[in-house]
Amino acid sequence: MASSNRAASLVKLHKQLKKLYKPVQPAVDRPLLEQLLLACCLENAPYDKAETAFAAITESYFDLNEVRVSGIAELAETTSGLPAPRAAAANLKQILQSVFEATYSFDLETMKKLNLGVAVKRMQQWKGTTPFVVSYAIQSALGGHSIPLDRGALQVLFVLGVIDQKELKAGSVKGLERAIAKSKGIEFGSLLHQLGAELVGSPFSPAVRNLLLSLAPDCKDRLPKRRTKKTVVTGKTSAGKTTTGKQDRSEKPSSKSAATKKKPASAKTKSTPATKKKSTAGAAKAKPKSAAKKKAASTTKKKTEKSKSTISKKKSATKRLARKKPR
């Protein structure tokens, strides 16, 4: 989009947002470090939930050093009302750790006296400082002109056709600070942030979609879309290989009929060799039994014949002795 068209569309969007939301002014009396910590809670979240989460952190812990040494899971439970409590807790903990390692304290008020560019570079070097957090600190505590843009605000600008897909991925909007004056920067940033928080909180809500369509009637194709799940069908072919993918209904009956036709043939081929093996096994078993019976019968006959011969010999010897006369 050309710079002139973008500036005109941003000015028009500012007027439209003023009819829908009320601007939110940041607390000026907060120190710079607290503004950074509040920005961690405010990213992609409504103002009331961010204030509640920040108040819970300051009230639940003795001081910021205790927050620094606490675990991310514990901090996430304290900020559970945010859309992404774990991400906010991680950024908050990393900022406190970076500030403590750099200054051995939690006082950053001296940075307000530095040049704005130097202060911004120093904040960007700390872990946990996202572009939204740095921009919010510049606008609320350092007196600079920088409109904070989180994921929700960038998504709104993309849906409304102000930026394209490349700028959405890059997370920057060229000419934004030139199109919106410094005196209106806080107001425009807060209005845009409220709409972005609603879009992040309920991207498929009919109320949010109708609101975006009222701002830009041609944004229907750029609205968030639900992801469709792909159904994957797994099966086995005749060769035993597994196949994955979508199958037509026309292919299912053919596969079933082929399977039913193959079953009887396989049953016949398996039954014939089984019967033959059983018959041959039975014949083999019958032969040894008959041979054993014959051997046993022959041995019993021999024993009976031997016993008869021995008895007959004894009887003949006794008869001979009886016939002899005594001298």
Overall description:
- The protein has 327 residues and is mainly alpha-helical.
- The chain has a domain at 3-222: Hypothetical protein, domain 2 (Endonuclease III, domain 1, Orthogonal Bundle).
- It is 65% helix and 2% strand.
- It is built from 14 helices and two strands.
- The protein has helices at residues 3-20, 32-42, 47-60, 64-69, 72-78, 85-103, 116-124, 131-140, 151-159, 165-170, 176-179, 185-201, 206-215, 251-323; strands at 233-236, 242-245.
- The chain has a two-stranded antiparallel sheet.
- Strand 1 (233-236) and strand 2 form a beta hairpin.
- Helix 1 (3-20) crosses helix 12, helix 2 (32-42) crosses helix 3 (47-60) and helix 9 (151-159) crosses helix 12 (185-201).
- The radius of gyration is 48 Å and the shape is globular.
- It starts with a helix and ends with a helix.
- Mean pLDDT is 81; it is low at 246-289.
State the separation between the terminal residues, measured CA to CA.
Answer: 162 Å
Class from helix and strand fractions: mainly alpha
Order of helices and strands: HHHHHHHHHHHHHEEH
Second-tier CATH architecture of the domain at 3-222: Orthogonal Bundle
Which word captures the global form? globular
Per CATH, the superfamily of the domain at 3-222 is Hypothetical protein, domain 2
Number of helices: 14
Low-pLDDT windows of residues: 246-289
Largest sheet report: 2 strands, antiparallel
Task: Please tell me the overall pLDDT.
Answer: 81
The residue fraction in helices comes out at: 55-70%
Radius of gyration: 48 Å
Read across the widest sheet, the strand sequence of neighbours is 1-2
Strand content: under 5%
The CATH C-level name of the domain at 3-222 is: Mainly Alpha
- Enter the CATH topology name of the domain at 3-222: Endonuclease III, domain 1
Q: Could you give the count of β-strands? A: 2
